[in-house]
Amino acid sequence: MSAIKINEAVFWVGAMHWDRRLFDELIPLPDGTSYNSYVIKGSEKTALIDTVDPDCEHQLFKNLQQLNIKKIDYVISNHSEQDHSGIIPRVLSEFPQAQLVTNSKAKTILSEHLEIPENKFKIVENQDVLSLGDRKLKFVMTPWVHWPETMTTYLEEDGIAFSCDFFGSHLATSQLFTDRDPKVLRDAKRYYAEIMMPFRNQITRNIAEIKSLNPSIIAPSHGPVYRDPEFIISAYEQWSSDKVLPQVVIPYVSMHGSTARIVDYLVDKFMEIQIEVFPFNITVSDIGEIAMSLVDASTVILASPTVLTVAHPSTFYVAYLLGALRPKTKYIGLVGSYGWGGRMAEVIKPLLANLNAEFLNPILIKGYPRQADYDNLDKLVEMVVAKNS
Amino acid sequence: MDKYVCKLCGYVYDPEKGDPDNGVNPGTPFSEVPDSWVCPICGAAKDLFKKQ
Q1: Min CA distance, A354 vs chain B (Å)?
Q2: Are the beta carbons of A105 and B43 separated by less than 8 Å?
Q3: Domain A4-240 has CATH 3.60.15.10
Q4: What radius of gyration do chain B's Cα atoms show?
Q5: Nearest residue on chain B to A146, judged by CA atoms?
Q6: Which residues of chain A have pLDDT under 50?
Q7: Calpha distance A289→A20 (Å, rounded)
Q8: What is the distance in angstroms between the Cα of B40 and the nearest Cα belonging to chain A?
Q9: pLDDT one-digit tens code per residue, A329-370
Q10: What pLDDT digit, counting tens, does each position of A231-256 carry?
């Protein structure tokens, strides 16, 4: 994709990775992704904000060439992760006069990962201002969105907040700007669930920092640029708040049908009483979809058969992700079946100890569910209803 | 002064050392570490620490 003009001094020079389908060898990317890099041409100095993934470096250099950029004075690194920083060494060798502007935490990470020499760095602190002549950049530390060193660069004269991963979405699109597009919102929610959710408390503080800037544009490092910042800020406020919705997420796996029968029964019951329910067969589900369902839901019920005395490995995987992503889940249930014995609850519970959630009594059924088991499942449903009302 | 350990990643807050990189001076007991402080290794909030 070619360079795109944002205004007379600011240009998008990033890369679209249309066909990337996996990030961190972990996160599915159904809509590809983009790495947004921006050039700001001040009257005296030119700055490049973040770079692109090394897989796409030719796109950045092609865009710089297209804009006839002969000189870069400052390369700003808002986040040290390689999808934004990976080709900084290459940029510094193409533009040898450029200084690398970042904070001290990022300096450590960039030095260690990319072997950038000491004399290239220009270190900035919170609220420092860098003049480009007729335009100024202000640096606002926004730690833990997504690493400890993440920061936002604010172009004061144009009201543009370059927030890097914060408010981003994995979405490759020919439309650089978005105005309240539900597809962007969905991808931004998925991104929040996968990347931001573990840092909910810090996000709340960082939202306040960004709001205090009163930006007219939020330009993240992945996905479209928001011309209506309120759209994404209010969504983030809702996702990161303590407010849960009366929804039940049921990640499950079943080997011979017993656990599937339990899940079918629960799903039917919740549907009958009109509680929103999201069953996910773990073995065929996109983990991003599961993560997204955890953003708002009050209740998670894990459903698993027993393998070699413990939960199925797929259940461990999801339980581990739950513990790592730390959603605001309030209630956790565990249901499943076993053949002759097992320690399902004992092994799963410790994985979820990080969540401030109440464990509902597990219902582990020997073999295929019978009437007494359905009665117990009814009680679980009643309890979930009571807790959610 | 008690040390506190992060339940998520195992980082140990040692009051004698504090966390000067993140604005907590050496000699600060855990109870006086600001609520806005987070684990420097994994970003966990203060309430995810337990006494060692």
Answers
A1: 7
A2: no
A3: yes
A4: 9
A5: B43
A6: none
A7: 17
A8: 7
A9: 999 999 999 999 889 999 999 999 989 999 999 999 999 999
A10: 999 999 999 999 999 999 999 999 99
